[in-house]
Hints:
By secondary structure, chain A is an alpha/beta fold. Chain A contains 19 helices and 19 strands. In chain A, strands 2-1-3-4-5-6 form a 6-stranded mixed beta sheet, with helices on one face. The termini of chain A are far apart. The model of chain A has no long low-confidence stretch (mean pLDDT 92). Chain B contains 7 helices and 11 strands. In chain B, strands 1, 2, 3, 4, 5, 8, 9, 10 and 11 form a 9-stranded mixed beta sheet that branches. In chain B, helix 1 packs across helix 3 (64-74). By secondary structure, chain B is an alpha+beta fold. Classes of the chains: A alpha/beta, B alpha+beta. At the A-B interface, helix 1 and helix 9 of A face helix 1 of B.
Amino acid sequence: MEKNLIEILKKVEKPARYMGGEALVRPVGTQMRVKFCLCCPTLYEMGMKRRDANILYYLLNDRKGYSAERCYAPQVDMARELLKEGVKLFSLENKLPLSQFDLLAFSLEEELDYFNIAYMLTLAKIPAEAVKRTSDFPLIFAYGKLAFNPEPLANIFDFFIIGDYEDMAVKVVDAIMKAKLSNLNKQEILTKLAQIEGIYVPSLIEVVKDKKGIVKIKGSVKSQVIRDLDRAFFPTKLMISNIGSESESAFIEPVRGCGAGCRFCQEGYVSRPVRERRVQTLVSQATSQIVNSGFDRLRIALPSAEAFPRLKNLLTLLEPICSSKGVEVEVENVGCDNELNSKILKQEDELVLSLEAGSERLRKIINKPLSKGEILNRVEKAFNEGTNKIRLFFMVGLPYETAEDLMEIIELALAIKQLYKSKHQDENKLQIVVQTSVFIPKAFTPFQWSAFIGIKEAEKRLGFIAKGLSQIGVKNESCNPTESAVSAIMLRGDREVSKCIIEGAKRGVLNLGNFDANLFFDVAKDCGIDSSKYFAKKDIKDVLAWDFIDVGVGKQFFIKELVRAQKDETTDKCANSCSNCGLQARGLCKYGNC
Amino acid sequence: MVIVKIRKVRDGIFIDGKNFISIVSRLCFVAGVYFKNESIKFSPLSKSNIKSIEYVALKTELGAKEVEDALQNNHPSWLEILGAYNLFDDEFDMSKVVAAKYTLSCDEFIAEEKKLKEYFESGKQYIIKKADGESVAVDVSDKIYSSSVENGVVTIVAATEDFDVEAFAKSMTKALEINVKDIKIERKQLFIDEGGELQDIDEYL
C-alpha cells in the first residue's frame, strides 16, 4: 500500500494532506479490540483545527485499551486518483480502508459538509444509506453541534450522539467492545445502543405520518450534558499538522453554553446550561498544551468577554507561563477590549462588533439589545485607543425586518465615519468593513418557526445594503445567498433531504472550497424536493422534524420568547435572572431555582 | 549552540519548505527551545519531492543530548533525527552552507552510464527554463563542483543557491534523450565554505 500511495501522492496537489505520521502522534496499533476511525468531513487543513474532533481523538487515544484513527475528506484530485487506482478511502494512521473499521464517527460542524459525508462513504466503497449496510460494514455515527437536528442525515447514519459527546463516546466504544465479544449482529448492537440515554438510532424509532403526510417521530431522545466541565476530558497535547501548523494554537474552553439568549442562535440554547471551568484547571490545561505541543499562540474560546467573568484573573495567572515562552494569547469574540489590559494579549488593531441587526428595535427583537449610543461609545473608545479598523457583522432577513432596519445599517456605518472624522484629520485611514449574511432559521431557537426569505429576496436586500454602503464609501462583504438557502434546507430539513444529500454528493455538490449551490438546487428538483417547504414560515402547532429531541429548553419557552420578540421585548441573560427556560426541570441549571 | 542533523524520509518528500520550518520549529519548542524566530536557523532547504539531509542550528542553554532525546520522542514518522551536536562557537552561520551532494538514480541510468559520463566530462550542463513562453537554456556548469557516475547513480556536488536539482535532472535526461519514468533524487550531504574550500558540515561539527 505505502509504495502505491506514494505514487498516487505524486500526482495530487497538497499530498501532505494524506500522509499522516504527524509529530506528537502516538502510533495506533492495528490489533485493537474496537477499530475506530474519526472522520472529519472536510479537508485535512480545516479538520485538523476542529476542536470537537481533536478532543475526541485524544480522549480515545489517551485511554488504555482504546484507540482511534483519523480520516479527512480528500480533495477531488485525490478522489479521482483513488478511484483510478482502485484504492478505497483510508485512515491516516495505519492506512486502513474505512470499510475495515468497526466504527466510524463523523463530526457535524458545518451543514454544507453533509454532502462530503456521502462522498467519503462512496470513496470508501461503503453504501451511504444505512439500510443498505449489513453487519459486514462498520457502524457509522455522528456527533457534534449539528446533531440536534439529525433528521436530514437519519437515512445515512446508524446512530447519533446527541449533546456533549466526551462521556458518550466512551460508552459507545464500551458497548461495541461488549457486542463484539458476544458476536452480536448490527441490529442487536443498535438495539443495545438505543438503550443508552442520548443515543438516537433512527432505524429503531417509530415514525408515523399524519393525514397531511407530516412525519412525526414517536418517543424522545434526551441530549446529554456534562455537568462538571472540570471533570470532562481535555487534551494536554495536540499533534503538529503536516500542513499549516504555523497557524495552529493551543486552546482552552473556559465555558460551555451561553446564557445571552440571542433568539437566532441555536448554540445559545442547545448548549445550556452555562458551565464554567475553574481558573486553575484552565491554567493547567493551557500550560500542558503549550509545553507539550510547542505552540506560540493560545486561543481562549469564549462567546463574549462577559461570558466568563474571571477572564482577567485567568489572564493574570497565564501571564508568567506565556511571557516566559513568548506565547501570545487571543480571546475569541472579544476583539480589542483593552479593559483586559494584559501584556500577553495579542494586540488587535481591529474592533469587531457582531451587531446582527441595524436598528435598535430589531436588536431588541433578536434579544441583543445594544443601543446606537452604546455602539458608538464602544467605537469612540476604540478610536481613542488608536484603532482605525472597524468590522461590523449584520444579517438580513431577520424576522420582522423592515426597509428601515436595513437603512439603519447604512446610517450606522455613516455615523461611525462621521465620528472618526470629528476626531481625525485624515479620514482615509479609517477602514470600515460591513459583513452581511442572510438569517437562517435554526432548530431549537425562538425563530425556528420563522421563514427563510429566499434567494431572490436575500439578493435584493443584500444588494440594497451594498449599494448604500458603496455610496458612503464603506466596504461591504456579502455572503452567497444561494449557499445560505442550501443551509436553510439542511438546518430545518427532515428525512426527505437525505436523498438529495446522497445524490448531490454523487453529482459533485461538495463543500471542498467551491460549493456549487446552483447544482444542489438542480439535484433537489430531480429528487422531488420542494425547497419552498423548508423556507416557509411554520405554525407553532406544526410538527417539527427535531421535536423528539429533548434539549432541556422547552418548546413552550421558545413560543414565549417568540411572542416577546413580536412585542419587541427582551429577555435578561441567564446570569442576571432566570427566564425559566425549562432546564430547571432537569436539575441542570445553576441559575434557576433547582 | 546545538546543531541538529535531520533527514526527510519516505513521504516526507511531500512536506514543503514552509511547513517543514514550522513543524521543526514547533518540535524544537517542545524540546525546550523558546523564542523560536531568533534562536532557530535552518540550512538552505531542499525542495519538496526530494529526500534530504537538513541541519538546524539552535541557540539554547540546553545540551545536545537533551535536545536530541526530546526530538527523538516526538518527531513525525517522515523525519529521522540523525544526531545533535554541541557547538561552543555560538555564531554558527547557516549562510556558510553553500553546496550539497545529490544522488540522482533510476533504472534507465544503468544502461546509459557512458552517455552520462560524457555529459559531465563535456563541461556543458544546462537547465531549460521557460521565460516569456520560450524555452531558454541556462548554463549551470559553474554551479556543479564535482560529479561521478557509478552503477546507474549520478552523484553531483552542486551549489545550494540558484541551482534547482530537479530541473537539472529533467534537462539532463532530455538533452541525453534518456526516457525516464521517475528519477529518485536525494540530498545526501551539505558543505560549508571554509576559506574557499568545501568542507563536509559533519566534519566541521
